[in-house]
Amino acid sequence: xxxxxxxxxxxxxxxxxxxxxxxxxxxxxxxxxxxxxxxxxxxxxxxxxxxxxxxxxxxxxxxxxxxxxxxxxxxxxxxxxxxxxxxxxxxxxxxxxxxxxxxxxxxxxxxxxxxxxxxxxxxxxxxxxxxxxxxxxxxxxxxxxxxxxxxxxxxxxxxxxxxxxxxxxxxxxxxxxxxxxxxxxxxxxxxxxxxxxxxxxxxxxxxxxxxxxxxxxxxxxxxxxxxxxxxxxxxxxxxxxxxxxxxxxxxxxxxxxxxxxxxxxxxxxxxxxxxxxxxxxxxxxxxxxxxxxxxxxxxxxxxxxxxxxxxxxxxxxxxxxxxxxxxxxxxxxxxxxxxxxxxxxxxxxxxxxxxxxxxxxxxxxxxxxxxxxxxxxxxxxxxxxxxxxxxxxxxxxxxxxxxxxxxxxxxxxxxxxxxxxxxxxxxxxxxxxxxxxxxxxxxxxxxxxxxxxxxxxxxxxxxxxxxxxxxxxxxxxxxxxxxxxxxxxxxxxxxxxxxxxxxxxxxxxxxxxxxxxxxxxxxxxxxxxxxxxxxxxxxxxxxxxxxxxxxxxxxxxxxxxxxxxxxxxxxxxxxxxxxxxxxxxxxxxxxxxxxxxxxxxxxxxxxxxxxxxxxxxxxxxxxxxxxxxxxxxxxxxxxxxxxxxxxxxxxxxxxxxxxxxxxxxxxxxxxxxxxxxxxxxxxxxxxxxxxxxxxxxxxxxxxxxxxxxxxxxxxxxxxxxxxxxxxxxxxxxxxxxxxxxxxxxxxxxxxxxxxxxxxxxxxxxxxxxxxxxxxxxxxxxxxxxxxxxxxxxxxxxxxxxxxxxxxxxxxxxxxxxxxxxxxxxxxxxxxxxxxxxxxxxxxxxxxxxxxxxxxxxxxxxxxxxxxxxxxxxxxxxxxxxxxxxxxxxxxxxxxxxxxxxxxxxx
Amino acid sequence: xxxxxxxxxxxxxxxxxxxxxxxxxxxxxxxxxxxxxxxxxxxxxxxxxxxxxxxxxxxxxxxxxxxxxxxxxxxxxxxxxxxxxxxxxxxxxxxxxxxxxxxxxxxxxxxxxxxxxxxxxxxxxxxxxxxxxxxxxxxxxxxxxxxxxxxxxxxxxxxxxxxxxxxxxxxxxxxxxxxxxxxxxxxxxxxxxxxxxxxxxxxxxxxxxxxxxxxxxxxxxxxxxxxxxxxxxxxxxxxxxxxxxxxxxxxxxxxxxxxxxxxxxxxxxxxxxxxxxxxxxxxxxxxxxxxxxxxxxxxxxxxxxxxxxxxxxxxxxxxxxxxxxxxxxx
Lengths: 906, 330
Known about the structure:
- The complex is a heterodimer.
- Chain A is 27% helix and 22% strand.
- Chain A is of the alpha+beta class.
- In chain A, the strands form nine sheets. Chain A has a seven-stranded mixed β-sheet with strand order 8-9-6-17-14-15-16.
- Chain B has three domains: 5-58, Uridine Diphospho-n-acetylenolpyruvylglucosamine Reductase, domain 2, CATH 3.30.43; 65-121 and 153-220, Uridine Diphospho-n-acetylenolpyruvylglucosamine Reductase, domain 3 (2-Layer Sandwich), CATH 3.30.465.10; 227-327, Enolase-like, domain 1 (2-Layer Sandwich), CATH 3.30.390.
- In chain B, helix 2 (36-43) links the parallel strand 2 (29-32) and strand 3 (52-55).
- The mean pLDDT of chain B is 97.
């Protein structure tokens, strides 16, 4: 993309669109005659559109939506497709000045009308004030929803009415942001104060609130995501998915699909035996499996000249199924006589053993210290209780899209991934290629929250179709497919017995847990949270179980929020039983050493609790349980969190050129966290340079070295550490040789693999919430939220604050709304999608106060630890406890929706 | 989507004719107002793939709100947003303006029409996920033994959908009349008789016959003393259908209620008017006790399924609160 750059904003990108264009099908090629025939059959209409002030005369297929024409045929890819059903808002454009969903409006209906897209906001080389405000307020995280948010904001301003916080929330109500940066979007439009919390003792660059180095690309529509990739001669692919929760494929007939004009290739389990190794650590998983083990399991894939043909062809495939019994619930799956989901039975081996290789034996993951039975017997009060959490979809805004192309034996895949190197290695292994023969590119990525960690089957299917057809192939998942076939947080069933002394000393914790992983094991299935407490007697037994639900795996702090829901609720019940304030209980009982044995490298948990409680005004806000007499009852609650801030292998290359520009090569993709900015700041700090002299080279395995994948909240620590080391080398070279002369450059590379001996490195958090429960209507309305975090030195307070707010709001959705709900008679989910799963909107948000406590950690880059995942950990527990404080009723099953609140009150 | 032809008739007669011709030729044809619900259903194949879509948006005169002494006429193509913002509707028929403002999201209100909102298909999750249910010609209503949290507590059977439209509840409360045009000419149907229960038809949710179109809505003039409100409980704060809602109008003469309309949304396959509760208010001074009695009466006879009993308590509280709030007795 040409046009607006960070440093010199010269003008809107021309995009090279002629004022008049007859839209061709595709570039000519031998196979395109069939294409033309196929396209010729679809009725077409000539229309006139004014797009961003330019008149276009176009011939469109009647069935094309407006967003399809804008993106695919006018190359205005700044307008995104998140759901294609009017459920997310990413495709919002203005039609004659009013905001509409361009996915739900036919292009022919717009004939004669004026369309405005994000590309038209900047005029004559000047950003729209809204775009400036979006940058200043750190409104875009992943940026995939940003164009839509901008256009809805523009529609509000077009009205000329007074802009208030409320009118902004209403105006943006049809634009979801799954990074949940709602508050920054609202503040940007309402021209509120940017959230720029000062941190103590900022360094030269690090510690100062800094807008993202790529914010401009994210607010102008220039950021190029995988779905924006279009290649000459490219085919479109679609997947046919199982309509059954569990079935044997008896026969499959693809000939009706192949007979359709424009269809080039079809893959099924009969003609494709590629292993999807990263799709399951416990069982062999192919791209297409027989039997199919969940509703939505891939059965076949079709490549055709356009997406409509591919879609139609997939439906022509005839599959003869023998349906099998299915099981959805993890505990039921372990009962005698339950249908085996996998040949080895439904109980999986512990994740640690699976990762260790060898021949892991199915069984629970067990952790014990002390003597649990003695500990319970010695306790003055014992609470025995059962908690249930559900499957929550990550619901990232960008649906999976993979574009694959083979050139001279080398495979290039554009795909949204949280780790380009891991993804490349997985793809290379699947095709039996050396790593250098595969290139993975992910310039911009529309969120993942853990479900874009590994290589996905979509990458491999696109690559295999491209290999067979000798043409580039784009495989796009629909939003529903993304909900069904990627993965979400695993559902759990948690049985606790917890004992304490009368003085509030925690004495015994037992957890017996079950995690429903779906048919495949991709993640730990752990139920975490009890490690946040010091306790002499602990017993934890967690079973990871195969079921016929969709696969469960990582979603932001994968095993924590659901575990904290359980343990925080039980401990709150102990506080209630012995009449002890939860803050006092926590100060007495929270972890001081990891598992009461290993010191932490730095420790701010007590500070989080104390400073958070003070910012919240806990002493004054806290009331006795069910203190309000009326139907609307106020309550407060708290919970804590801890998340690893691991150290480990990562790489960085620094190049200093003769113009004084520092090039930072890092194999990150920046999933919305602001990693590119954070890492550039660390480089600038380490080199004692200004940030605007640093250029980041990222997102391309051919141009950037191995970096750890952006998961586990470890990019800042791992890759930042490598940058600091490389900078030391570069500074040494500078000292020795002086600055590079004309045509020269200095290069430093570091690949450190630091580890800790006898220490654990963790980030900590304490969250406090006040809310009102409408006991008659069942609603829970949050009125105050304080999130206190110890993440070591905060590299960029601006983006770190966005992380905290986003994690908290995702947690609120998990607590109150969200669940992928299955029909038990068919094994089919009834609510995949943003509408059905009740994903949070602008109107569901409340202000969140963020407190960073001041800690120094000797090990990370400039003392930084981790932030992304710790933000969601305490949320559900804090809310559940506040609901108990308000009502005196404890709700033990997520989500705490209106039906459950009313049920608990009656 | 499978290929189809978009037709843009310039008149209503032409639109009806195009629909009829297509059908006579054995083709599938649908009218499109705003079109967003239709496109979603076509994409998800919840309805047979169309050969023709007859776009009504280019027909002049149907996108106007006209007010006279006899009442207000709303063209079928008036957008939901225009209804919500119309000064005349906000001042004379606040229950309708509030119901329209509660619909979906701004983008949907900007394209969605009042006729389309009233005629939208059910949002039962079984129906929308493509289950072969009664509404789609299948042999059962999956909600009966399934996930029926969102389903009907009144008027259910054999299907237990709830009517999804917010504005429909307000229009029934306002004694609106619906103008219908079709192959056999024009007819007018009171809003209270427009919607039909599953026991009367599984294929449709209203009286529109094949190729008939809802082209306009008439609202009778109202007394200056009539107030109205629409209260909608949702399972997130925006962009979804009502769990339970109430459309309420009150004609107050000082402290005394002269007339009332109470229509519940989200509880039945049609907007669910509760005349017994209205009767309790008529001629009375409104007190907290009376509001509670009316609310109890409104929910009398509810027949919840296994997972939607909470709707009874919710609706009862919503009616009581709305009556108190609107009457000023709160």
